[in-house]
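quick one, 108 residues, struct below
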Amino acid sequence: MPEQWLEEKIPRWYAWWRLHDIQDGTCATCDAPAYAIDHDHRTGLVRGLLCISCNHLEGMCGRSAQAGTHPGEPCFQAYWETPPAGTLRWLYGKTTLAHLDRGGPSGR
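---
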């Protein structure tokens, strides 16, 4: 398990399978099959697996929330506050993932 690996790097395939197991193969925000590893583009922290549609919608919702143009509470607010992968503290990089507590980068 990556939490016990001495190396900082976590293979993407392992992260996907671990999240797939945690989420029972479904999207973190709907009932569709999950395919995309979602992460916060500002911090790099992995949040969970999303289906293709929710991954696209989450990005659009996040941009409008940051710009202050989203009316009311953003539709992904609960997911952002308590993501399935939050306790894992994995950082999403361009080629691999890293564990935040293993000396990985502090953000993006």
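Helices lie at 12-22, 52-66, 77-81.
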